[in-house]
Design brief:
It is built from 7 helices and 9 strands, in the order ααββααβαββββαββα. The protein is α+β, with helices and mostly antiparallel strands and 208 residues long.
């Protein structure tokens, strides 16, 4: 009954979205926070890929998203159910749909004086043609960026994006040579083969 329906929904829609029942109150979160943070730090280590000197992608899944919601509740002192439900709805955009990988892209610049010049240099990185996943035997899989994080004048330091993989691409991710993340932008060219631990993690997102 319920299990069959849940499996059908997962098959059609992809990874299950975060629900109200998945979130604990601030009072219940505090005693388990240290352990939760350690677990998510270890998980993100396997899901974090640096491409060049200042661009990093973190591939998101249900566990990383739940952690972000709990940390946001803690930082903002959220107790009101309506506000918490709004955070759940907002962060659920990071949960990948069927056949997708979801990631947060960070442009990380340590030197404060270099922030504006670097962001200016990376203007257009979210145009849908600059960042792609290279897999053996399939065309480049370009990142689909969430709109609204840049404009004609400036680019955001944080972006949310997805890669949509068809059946051939999913097979190549699991069985082919190591995939490569590529940035081919006039102001920034770099590529990084996915570490093996990352490659082991990502098919779980496609199968979730």
């Amino acid at each position: 009954g319920v299990r069959i329906v849940r499996e059908f929904v997962r098959e059609v829609c992809g990874m299950e979205k975060v629900r109200w029942q998945d979130i604990v109150t601030l009072q219940d979160y505090e005693p388990i926070r240290d352990r939760s943070r350690r677990e998510v730090i270890a998980l993100k280590k396997a899901r974090r890929v640096s491409v060049g000197e200042c661009v990093t992608l973190v591939f998101e899944n249900r566990r990383t998203v739940i952690h972000q919601i709990q940390e946001m509740m803690r930082a903002e002192h959220l107790y009101d159910e309506a506000l918490i439900r709004h955070e759940i709805e907002t962060y659920n955009r990071l949960i990948p749909d069927q056949g997708q990988l979801s990631a947060t892209l960070f442009i990380e610049i340590e030197d404060a004086q270099q922030v504006k010049p670097t962001l200016d240099r990376l203007h257009g990185i979210d145009n849908g043609r600059a960042l792609f996943l290279r897999l053996a035997g399939v065309p480049p899989i370009f990142a689909e960026f969430e709109a609204g994080h840049s404009n004609e004048e400036k680019v955001s330091a944080v972006h949310y994006l997805r890669f949509t993989l068809d059946e051939r691409a999913r097979k190549a991710l699991r069985e082919g040579p190591p995939p490569t993340l590529v940035i081919d932008h006039p102001g920034y060219r770099a590529e990084t083969p996915l570490p093996e631990e990352t490659r082991q993690e990502l098919p779980r997102d496609l199968d979730a």
